[in-house]
Structure formats: C-alpha cells, structure tokens
User: What shape does this take?
Amino acid sequence: MNIRLINTKNPSDVRDFIQFPFDLYRESDFWVPPLRQEMRANLDRQENPFFEHSEADFFLAENSDRVLGRIAVLKNNRFIRLTSEPTAFFYYFDAVDDLRVSRILFQAAEQWADERGLTALYGPKGMLQGDGIGALVKGFDHLPAMGIPYNYPYYDRLIQDAGFSKQSDYYSGYLSAEARVPERIISIANKVRERRGFWVRKFTTKDELLAVAPEIRKVYNESFSGEGFNPITEEEMESIASRILSIADPRLIKLVYKDDQLVGFLFAYPNIGQGLQKAKGRLWPLGWFHLWRASKTTPYLDANGIGILPEHQGVGANAVLYQELERTFREFNFDHVETVQIREDNRESLGENSALNVSWYKTHRVYTKNL
Assistant: This one.
C-alpha cells in the first residue's frame, strides 16, 4: 500500500480522486453523489476561491492500481489569522473499512500539517463556509440533506483509531407534514410583525436573489460565530451563490427585514438527492432531466440556513422565520422538512426547534487531534 499526493493539474489524478466514493458507495441506497463538474471545480486551484487565500493538498491511498481511500488537508490562512489557532482541517475523507488505510491517510495529513507549523487537525470541514461539516454518526438509513455528508457507520471507528476525539456534534431533525408550529410562536410572530416593523421579502426569480447577495453575505457573517466559523469573502459568496442557485427555487428562500434593513434569512431547498443518484454525478446526457424532475416531485425540503442578527435575537424575529418555514412547506406540499446541522451548544436554536416538535434523527461529528 502506498500514499500518493495527487497532481490537481493532471486529469487522471483528479478523476481518480473524484471516482473513489462512487466505487465505495456503489451499493448504498443513501449516499448521494456530487456533480463531477463541481468536484473538479473544487480541486481547481485557478477556479476555487479558497485558493486565493489558502492552500490544500489531496492524497490517495492505493494498493497496486486500486484506490482504497482519499483525504484532503487544508490550511485556511483566513481562519488562522482570525482565530490565532494554527489548525489544519481535513476533508473528503473516504476509505474502505481497513485501519491500515485510514492510518496511512491520516499520517499523511498530519505530516502535511506539521510541515506547515500547524499544531492541530480538525474536521471533517471543507473549504467554504457553506460546505457540510462532520462525519455522520447517527441516521444512516436516511437520505442526506443537500450538500451534507453521508458515510458508512465504520468511519467513526477509523477516525478515533487515528487518535481523534470528539470536538462537537451537529444535530439535524425533521418535521413531518402533520406537525404544526405552536400557536404561541405564531402569536409572537404576528405581534412582532405588527409592533416592531418586521416583514418578509419573497422572491420569484434567481436574478432577484443575486441582487441582494452582498446584503445576505453581510448578515450571514454577522449572524454566526464560534467554533470553526470563517467569514465568507466576496469571491466565496459568488461561488456559494452559484452553487445554491443551481438547485434553489427562489420562492422557498425568505429574507426578514426590520423596516428597510435586512436582519435575517431562511434558506430552504428542495432535496433533489434522488435525482442526483439517478444522474450518477453527470448532467449529460440525461442527468439534467433527473435533477429537473426531482426538483418538481421531491417530498423533501431542507432548511439549511436560518439566522438572525444578534441584536434582533430574543425579540421575536426568530418566530417570524419559523412561521415562514411552516408556510413554505405547506404551500408547496412537502411531506418532510429537515432542519440541518445545528451545533450541540446552540441551545437557543435547539430549543426553538424542539418547540416546533422537531425529531432529532441525524448527528454529524467533528473531531480534533493535537499534533
């Protein structure tokens, strides 16, 4: 067995890195493949805005001509400057159920980080703030939310064997069509709309959304903080917006204003995972049709971003967002709504979701290791 640093300018190397999980999860009913062209763009040092300020490398573990595992290791210079934490991230970790494979992959990642003076390894965490985080440790018999990792149950064992320990868990939950937002929350939402000047802006076209992307970036960066958070740059916002708009129905995205100031957002997307499974990672010749059809017929809605500026939290603005979430999935006849990846120490958000009768059914775990 050997470990190989791939050359991201070599199409064959890039193809091997992208293809491995397609082979690994061939028999899985739940893994959702990425679009191959998006993965190629992520590895392209000229196209991915991450490489404008930071660095990453990508490794394959092989036995003869067979790929057995892969991993990416990242040095996010903006994160290090912001936090003064000399930490590397690992991402795109996939491996067969063999400790020899996972050990050689993590050894390569640790050596890479050590050579750059980094003293800890943290992950799974991606290049852009909007990337799904963690390894799945609960909820293996469910389709993942859009952009959120799915992996086999043995990954937790492989990661812990390499000396990692839990840093944080992220919970995802679902609301069924029978669930109702409590009358108390609806009452609060109606009162703050009337008395405090909160109102909801809706959209019908993607161009309308693009026009307010700079405002959304500002509010997003000010709404979140803490472990692993890194503010989004203008260039990264363009990349994230392009990714979102490729799957978004503008009617499902709502922004909350107080008078004329944007103060919050609700990002909800149709889950087209079953279409991606049928497309097998390719738009052509028929992949686009599977994605289009899934966007029109899926019963699943992902609520993958709910945020309010800190100065407007605790005064009822969140109730407006949850009221809009219920209106959205009822108006468009979704059967299942998933609230995606809320960190375990975000007690306010977890409490609000629990008050909506959310059932917590998935857990993703982020790990850390001192080097």
The mean pLDDT is 89. The CA atoms of residues 18 and 330 lie 38 Å apart. The domain at 175-362 is CATH 3.40.630.30 (Aminopeptidase). The radius of gyration is 21 Å.
